[in-house]
Amino acid sequence: MSLSDNADPKVASSTPHARPAAPAPARPQKQGPRRRRRVLTGVLAALAVLVTVAAAGGLLWQISAVAAPRTGTFTTPEAYPPAAVAPVLASTNADAPVPDLQSVLPALLADAGLNGSLSASFADALTGEVLFEQEGTTPLAPASSMKVVTAVAALEHLGAEYRIPTTVVEGPTEDSVVLVAGGDVTLTVDGEGYYTEYADGASLQELADLVLEARGGTAPATVYLDTSVFTDNPKAEGVPTTDLETATAPMAPFMVDGGRVDNTQKYAQHYPDPAQVAAEQFADLLGAATVADGTAEAGAAELAVVYSAPLAALVDELILTSDNLLADAVSLQTALVVEGEMTWAAMSSVHLATLEGLGVDNTGLVFYDGSGLSPTNRMTANGFTQLLLGAAGSGSSAVFGSLPVAGYSGTLHDRFGSAEEGKGVVRAKTGTLTGVSSLTGTLTTVDGRQLIFSLISNGATSGEVAVEAALDGIATGVALCGC
Question: What is the pLDDT of residues 169-203, one digit of tens each?
């Protein structure tokens, strides 16, 4: 696997969503996917919201003269306040002309760096009309663009306010409790952890305090760990075993910091049994001496429950920073709610059904995971554009707000160096594996027309840097063509 697709979220930043005031989780919506073919103009307006960037110098207050005044006169610091805000995102215009992409794309797609298989699809966001495609129905490995499928499916079925629970119930004896894993991999030990910046959720300390309160301050002797909600292989089909060391963790329905040994690093070593480690950390906080595997008895009294951040925040994290472990956890949570089981096969069924419900032709599509780490996944460029067109008119339209902005945020913060004019014009999810590169999202033409696009390259021998530069150049060329 290549690591360049997955930027360090401590560096690749974007304004995180604020958490809702009310912590109570929304009830999951279990209805099947709905077919939404129309595209809302209102979504386009939302995508055109300007993000302001303040110059660092304009934020430095020179207050020493006020703290110890010598004259009683306050001198306004130079460059304060900023003279004007700087727009980041290009603005859209629903009346802008539809570009003639046939006049520009064949030459752009002929870039020498794209000497493998290439699938391309461009559609008008307002009308849904396909403006150009090249091998658009050819199934290829999508790499991390697969996370767009995961995000849309989760938002469609669970809703933006859904939270993942972690519960503790009474154990089989008076001096025991059972921790029932629910699928949350973003827990922290004490409230500060890897996911705190974007997806600040629950802590083991909070859970332990609630359990002790429910037990009148008496610590149990034993904590039983119930992970029976996840019964599948901890590694999705096709994912290299070596990827479980730093690119992701062996899947489990209960983790702290996504199973990372060092919660300050994205590509830290991962624990081989992250659920067991988290259970031992919980037992230490609770004052329990023993951790053992077990299953909660039917009807066992609930002692405490804590919840993850809302799904909208989890989607932000997994899309912006391309977090593999979180993407798989969210996809499996969707499978649990819709299919009643947390398995890779159930995940695949839900994702395929969701795409079909949004108007996507599923011919040749194969999904083995929700992260895109498996090189055996298959998706088409047409499938991605159809998916986003369907999402724009449905409850999953929030996915557009999570897409990285070229040159500014997420995995695109350090891209488009050779295509500067595309910065702030392109918003897209990246995808990178060995021999695989993809770019899926939206762009705004120089005239203000909003387009949805997907580019997938497999098997190019020119190297990752050359392929990514070519994809960036294609998106930018379309945006600037004025054709």
Answer: 999 999 999 999 999 999 999 999 999 988 999 99
Q: How confident is the model at residue 437 (pLDDT cuts 50, 70, 90)?
A: very high
**202 within 8 A of 306, measured Cβ to Cβ:** yes
pLDDT above 50 (res 166): yes
457 flagged as catalytic: no
Q: How far does Cα 194 stand from its chain's mean position?
A: 14
* Alpha-carbon span 227 to 413, nearest angstrom: 37
- pLDDT band for 129, please (50, 70, 90 cuts): very high
144 is an active site residue:
yes
Q: Domain segments of the chain: what residues?
A: 41-46+92-158+316-480, 52-87, 165-309
103 is catalytic: no
Contact 204, 210 (CB under 8 A): no
Q: 119, 145, 147, 394: which is the annotated catalytic residue? A: 147
Pair of tokens at residue 102: 């046939």
Superfamily of domain 41-46+92-158+316-480 in CATH is: DD-peptidase/beta-lactamase superfamily (3.40.710.10)
Token pair, residue 77, equals 């610091």
Q: Can you tell me the mean pLDDT for 7-21?
A: 38
Sign of dihedral through CA atoms 361, 365, 367, 370?
A: negative
Residue from 145, 203, 308, 322 carrying the catalytic annotation: 322
CA angle (196, 198, 201) in 5-degree steps: 50
- Which of 315, 476, 471 shows the shortest CA–CA distance to 391? 315
Catalytic residue chosen out of the listed positions 14, 119, 144, 402: 144
pTM, to two decimals: 0.84
Contact (Cβ atoms closer than 8 angstroms) between residue 283 and residue 223: yes
Q: Distance of CA 253 to CAs 52, 259, 336, Å? A: 38, 11, 11
pLDDT reading at 275 higher than 70: yes
